[in-house]
Amino acid sequence: MSIVSYQQPKGAIQRLAAPWRPLLGNRYAVEIARRKLSFAIAFPAQLTIWALAWALGLMHIGPTWIFPVLIIGSGAVTVATIVRFGRFGARVRRDLAAHDVHVQELLVARRPNDVQQWAGRNRVDLHVVAQIGDDHR
Predict the structure, then answer these.
(1) What is the sign of the dihedral through the CA atoms of 108, 112, 118 and 123?
(2) How far apart are CA 32 and CA 110, in angstroms?
(3) How far apart are CA 31 and CA 29, in angstroms?
(4) Binning pLDDT at 50, 70 and 90, where does residue 3 land?
(5) Spatial distance between the Cα atoms of 53 and 37, rounded to a whole number of angstroms
(6) CA angle, 114 as apex, 110 and 117 as ends, to 5°?
(7) Are 117 and 11 in contact (CB under 8 A)?
(8) How far is CA 78 from the centre of its chain?
(9) Which residues contact 89 (CB under 8 A, 6 or more apart)?
(10) Among candidates 41, 66, 72, which has minimal Cα distance to 53?
């Protein structure tokens, strides 16, 4: 009789966090993955809302206030997404400062390579950042 090992499938967040984990630690990697996933969902939703608002406005269907409300609401979602990314960078900077690692600029990373460039510009050892990122306070 053979023992079959069952491995639970990884979720989307864990798959997205994988390339970031060695650079920034688990906590920061998961936060980046969550923000990337929320942006991946929010961006197409915003485009759909804009298209719907445009179509309703062109066809003069529905109340006249629906077009500006949908556009303003969609813009608010965009601003909220950008603010979330900025808050994450500020939190990383604050956590690093609490461990006597001072950086000049916020971490803004779209790719893992961006993290390495950020570390070089700020003279930060990524092993220290990963340890702080794994620290659960």
Answers:
(1) positive
(2) 9
(3) 5
(4) low
(5) 25
(6) 165
(7) no
(8) 13
(9) 106, 107, 108
(10) 66
Number of CB atoms found within 10 A of residue 46's CB: 19
SS3 2: coil
Among 24, 56, 43, smallest CA distance to 129 is for 24
Mind listing the pLDDT tens digit for each residue in 45-55?
Answer: 888 888 887 78
- Find the Cα–Cα–Cα–Cα dihedral 47, 106, 93, 82, rounded to 10°: -10
- Model pLDDT for residues 56-110, shown as the tens digit of each residue: 777 777 777 777 887 888 888 878 878 887 788 888 888 889 989 888 887 877 7
Give the per-residue pLDDT at 6: 45
Residue predicted with more confidence, 12 or 63: 12
Task: State which H helix or E strand residue 49 sits in.
Answer: helix 26-59
